Amino acid sequence: MIFTTSMTGRHARMRGMDVEPDLEPALDQRLVDAALAQLNRRWPADEPGGAAALRLDDGEILTSVGLDNLNGGVSLCHETGAICRAYTLNRRVTASVCVYRDPERDRILILPPCGICQERLAMWGPEVQVAVPDNGSATGWAARTLRDVNPYYWGAQFTDDGMWPSQESHSE
Ligand SMILES: [Zn+2]
């Protein structure tokens, strides 16, 4: 299930005669809150459950929840639906957050993207921001880039300059 919670994000403000873009940060509390809101819409408060929120390059936020199934082999991560929606819209993903409610310990976990979701997000390059747990911060999360969490990305071995492959090369 995918909800669009914002169609805004790229604003312009006037400064004298100049119009400067006022870009929102890719990963902020609003994106984390969007994931939490999706979690709470989908799952009863006393049950475990998760959700993800992605920010697109125009500021739009997409959310989704994973697919559970009796056959665990066909289940999908929470990010998957929003990733496919972003790709369907032909938009660039700039940030990803995944949250999980652990009712037994009455806490919310911030889940970094699993290895497979890191591969999916790699389509949009090493600067995609992802939320990671950070017990030292008041919010409980911190932003890291895909490059931070995957410094030895295998795909960079296939480019002439050692950079991450372009989005186009993922479609070849
Ligand atoms: Zn995953």
Automatic annotation (TrEMBL):
It comes from the Bacteria. GO terms for molecular function: cytidine deaminase activity. CDD domains: cytidine_deaminase (cd01283). Keywords: Hydrolase. Its EC number is 3.5.4.5. InterPro entries: Cytidine_deaminase-like (IPR016193). NCBIfam families: PRK08298.1. This is Cytidine deaminase.
